[in-house]
User: What shape does this take?
Amino acid sequence: MHEAEAFLRDVVVPRASAMDRDPDALRVGLEGLCQRGLMALRRPIAYGGPEMPEPLFRDFQEEVARASGALAFLQTQHQSAVSMLARSENQDLKERTLPFMADGTRLVGIGFSQLRRPGPPMLRAEPCAEGWRLTGHVPWVTGWTFYSEFLAGASLPDGSAIFGLVPLENRNADGGSIRVSEPMRLAAMEAAMTVQVELTDWLLPTGDTAFTRPPGWIHKNDLINIALQGFFAVGCARAGLDGLRAAFEKKGDPAIGDALELLSKEVATCRQKLAEAQSLGEDTSEERLALRAWAIELAVRCAHAAITATGGSANATDHPAQRVYREALVYTVSAQTAPIMRATLARLTRG
Assistant: This one.
């Protein structure tokens, strides 16, 4: 962690504004993580490790979010793909991917948020002799031009879901096609190059299939990850505190110092409670929803406090306080479910 923290502090933080808007600048940050072997931290020891313990991995994700939202958003796609592939029963696929996923040799995104959406499946998988044929729409894949492939989740006729590796590029092959949209225009983290992907009768060979999951799997997974996702918001809140501290050091106004002290204590308490909640069972989902909403609110409040203390210069597009405020928007809605939305609104409208 010491090497990671030094890299984030010395290399990423000074370039965070550029990384937010410039894919080439963001690429430098991603390559730095790859060069330090930090892109597969949850990889099993059998495939090269380091199989970082969950609490330490949460700390890493929080620190990256504190340094640069765009880099945090981009790298976590690949970290998630590593964790998911590690749980695959396809031994050959694991041997072809996992040993090469820490240093940038093989970088993989994810695309399965569509499984959360009600109504007809957005991406369907039909069995065929060679594996599966995928047809439909993946509305959100981050990492265009950074990642050459992504782990896609498609709905099967019985309501379960199949996951497998799909190229992240325009391609025609085996009677099917992949079409990638232009990168989305986003308020924050645009440099991470988020696109939509259309698949038409695309062949997912059995050898590239990772696993299947039962109907409703993603909703159960969302329950487990309610608190986990909150650590990104906490990292954003701490970035807001960094901006508030910078304003206090520049102006010396006691009101700024008081705000910094009070918000720092609240962020520390929220962070501790989120960590404790990770070890609790699913029957604590209401408590974890409240904690997630608290973390989201803190990200916005700390960023807003940094803007307030900074003054008019925070309106400049390249000012760190404005960037962090926009990143708080992303963490408000990232991996959002209806229960998280309701908990956040309840938090924001309490008396």
The domain at 108-215 is CATH 2.40.110.10 (Butyryl-CoA Dehydrogenase, subunit A; domain 2). The chain has twelve helices and nine strands. The chain has a mean pLDDT of 94. The two ends are 41 Å apart (CA to CA).
